[in-house]
Amino acid sequence: MFRDLPFKIELTRFGKILMSPASNQHGRIQGRLAGMLWSRHPEGEVIAECSIQTGDGVKVADVAWASSAFLEEFANLTPYPKAPELCAEIVSPSNSKAEIAEKVSLYLETGAQEVWVIYEDRHLEIFSHRGAEADVASSLF
């Protein structure tokens, strides 16, 4: 029923459905990021629209990179009970700063080692358990 909607669908911890509109620019950035990760880290896999069970329901990372060990442990589970090593969010105009900050926290709490936040104005913020690691201009676009 929902699979043909042009939205990304997530669930809150209360079971409420959240739908985010898709844009072609978002998809272009997502494709470039996936290609870059795949070429630089072939020992794992890139996952687009990666569903992750968090403390606030199911969240969907725009792009994730998972090691071979992660994939061996969790295989084809949906959603993953733990976040892959790298989760990336591409900020859409409909995203608030609070929403993105919460997703960063949730992914890190659920096991991600790094979370990348990519803005359409060509900058990238990298977060780890130590906090903000970098805020740089990116050539992914």
TrEMBL record:
Q: Offer one Pfam family short name for this entry.
A: Uma2
Q: Which residue numbers delimit the Putative restriction endonuclease domain?
A: 6-130
Recorded source organism is: Imhoffiella purpurea
Database matches in InterPro entries: Nuclease_put_TT1808, Restrct_endonuc-II-like, Uma2
Per its record, how is this protein called by name? Answer: Putative restriction endonuclease domain-containing protein
What superkingdom heads the lineage? Answer: Bacteria
- Taxonomic path: Bacteria, Pseudomonadati, Pseudomonadota, Gammaproteobacteria, Chromatiales
